[in-house]
């Protein structure tokens, strides 16, 4: 008691340190209390202790210490963590030992954000939510006061360090936990998270870990505990402010450079507006309409790919996809929508994400928002229908089997295609080529295009007369089109088109002539776009307008 009284009397003026014989430093820092108003309002014993850990300089000549990534102490700590590196399959971890070793590193060796994240989680495992609050306070102090000198130096490594902790916080801070009896702890926790989110946004920009869903969830939990509702007038004023920023101070546009600059500014404003709408109401249709318009605005053609439809684009990390799936299975639909929408903004060809968003909205009964997702996605597929066949650099499809089924059922319901138009229009007395075509379609996937071409080439060589040979050539072009070899099909169809015009048969065989033009235009739409191709596509389109205007209008 006397010792406690002595410490209380000395509070604000003295610093007392104690170093044990085992070289582990245990200390108590008692500092001036004049700036207490700048600190978080709620304090407990753990928060004070670990705030002092954050403030304690490693050495007189080096406040932050040195990078310990390859030190024995750091590697031993990593090994002890072991299964804790996996969110899905954690092993038995001695968290008290992790806490002890992390604290020792932060005191004696290095102010390292990776170690601070491990310590924060170890404090939760050992001390529950007050421990987590103390850990977040330590991280906040290091990031706010020592960002430039903090280890590790690379921004992406810092983001990954916080991402490790955020993934665990998302699984921990679910809405069914009771916070009423420890409300001050959670109120201070949301302050730290808000401030950290601002700091990361300022310093890490696009690499910043995503704290928004976590903050939103925690805020809702606190609001329910306090039984306080926000005044609607505040929301209206904030929306008006965002809208005013969107439409005021329009830049003068007199060059392409001005146009690009203005577009970039409005894109950033639009993204902020989408985030705001989602923050107010996760199912606001405007957020899904504007967000997709911004992301897909500049997408006019499919990305470059090889013969196997593999592009150079990278998909989402596997651990993030697993996390999304877990949260969906846990019915965390509202927060998951915010998270997935941000991922879609940076990965516009992750089409499985559109399906995931739609499923979340469906679970929430948000019919209007579901229709927006369907409508905007349908517009993209109308421009570049072949995008659903492409793959990321590792072979993962843009759209998996479930997404393709969803597209067929809800986004682009089956409608007559150019190929189907030909099927209905090619009605001849003895259409042997038509029967062979339908026989070959089911075999394309197993036998490949080469086997089908060989069979058609043989039939072509046995054709009796130029008319039969022409239809076998058309059948060959249709097979290439069905196999999605649009470049090969277009070459065949261009020859057939010239043959019809040169012989004057387009007047005698108008239906066949239209079939050739429709397929040719369909090929041009699906091929990688360039100026030459655009000119040819426009020429074919004008001819179709002249000869088949009614079908085009339909």
UniProtKB/TrEMBL annotation:
Domain ImpA N-terminal: start-end pairs: 56-166
Cross-referenced InterPro entries: ImpA_N, T6SS-assoc_VCA0119
Entries under NCBIfam families matching the protein: VI_chp_7
PANTHER family: IMPA N-TERMINAL DOMAIN-CONTAINING PROTEIN, TYPE VI SECRETION SYSTEM DUF2094 AND IMPA-RELATED DOMAIN PROTEIN
Protein name: ImpA domain-containing protein
Higher taxonomy: Bacteria, Pseudomonadati, Pseudomonadota, Gammaproteobacteria, Pseudomonadales
């Amino acid at each position: 008691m006397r010792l406690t009284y002595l410490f209380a009397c000395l509070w604000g003026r003295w610093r007392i340190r104690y170093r044990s014989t085992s070289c582990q430093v245990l200390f108590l820092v008692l500092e001036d209390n004049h700036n207490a108003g700048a600190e978080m309002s709620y304090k407990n014993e753990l928060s004070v202790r670990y705030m002092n850990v954050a403030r304690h300089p490693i050495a007189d000549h080096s406040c932050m210490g040195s990078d310990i990534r390859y030190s024995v102490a750091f590697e031993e700590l990593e090994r002890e963590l072991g299964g804790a590196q996996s969110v899905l399959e954690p092993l038995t971890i001695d968290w008290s030992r992790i806490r002890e070793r992390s604290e020792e590193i932060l005191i004696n060796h290095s102010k390292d954000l990776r170690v601070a994240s491990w310590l924060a989680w170890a404090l939760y495992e050992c001390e529950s939510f007050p421990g987590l609050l103390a850990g977040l306070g330590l991280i906040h102090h290091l990031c706010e006061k020592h960002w430039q000198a903090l280890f590790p130096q690379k921004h992406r490594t810092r983001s990954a360090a916080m991402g490790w902790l955020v993934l665990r916080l998302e699984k921990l801070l679910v809405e069914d936990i009771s916070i009423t009896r420890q409300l001050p702890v959670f109120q201070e926790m949301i302050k730290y998270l808000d401030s950290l989110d601002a700091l990361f946004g300022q310093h890490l920009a696009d690499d910043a870990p995503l704290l928004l869903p976590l903050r939103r969830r925690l805020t809702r939990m606190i609001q329910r505990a306090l039984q306080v509702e926000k005044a609607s007038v505040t929301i209206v004023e904030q929306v008006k402010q965002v809208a005013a920023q969107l439409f005021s101070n329009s830049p003068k546009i007199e060059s392409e450079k001005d146009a690009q600059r203005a577009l970039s500014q409005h894109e950033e404003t639009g993204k902020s507006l989408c985030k705001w709408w989602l923050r107010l109401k996760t199912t606001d249709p405007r957020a899904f309409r504007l967000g997709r318009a911004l992301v897909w605005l500049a997408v006019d053609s499919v990305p470059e790919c090889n013969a196997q439809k593999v592009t150079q684009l990278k998909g989402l990390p596997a651990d993030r996809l697993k996390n999304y799936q877990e949260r969906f299975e846990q019915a965390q639909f509202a927060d998951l929508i915010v998270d997935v929408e941000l991922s879609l903004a940076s990965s516009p060809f992750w089409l499985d994400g559109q399906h995931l968003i739609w499923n979340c909205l469906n679970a929430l009964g948000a019919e209007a928002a579901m229709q927006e997702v369907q409508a905007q996605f349908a517009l993209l597929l109308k421009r570049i229908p072949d995008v659903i066949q492409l793959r990321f650099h590792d072979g993962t499809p843009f759209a998996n089997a479930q997404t393709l089924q969803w597209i067929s059922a809800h986004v682009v319901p089956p409608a007559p295609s150019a190929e189907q138009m030909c099927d209905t229009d090619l009605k001849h007395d003895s259409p042997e080529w038509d029967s062979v075509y339908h026989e070959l379609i089911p075999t394309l996937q197993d036998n490949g295009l080469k086997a089908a071409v060989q069979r058609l080439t043989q039939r072509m060589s046995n054709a009796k007369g130029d008319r039969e040979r022409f239809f076998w050539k058309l059948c060959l072009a249709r097979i290439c089109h069905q196999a999605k070899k649009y470049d090969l099909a277009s070459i065949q169809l261009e020859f057939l088109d010239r043959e019809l015009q040169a012989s004057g048969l387009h007047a005698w065989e108008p239906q066949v002539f239209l079939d050739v033009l429709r397929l040719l235009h369909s090929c041009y739409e699906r091929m990688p776009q360039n100026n030459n191709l655009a000119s040819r596509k426009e020429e074919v389109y004008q001819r179709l307008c002249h000869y088949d205007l009614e079908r085009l209008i339909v």
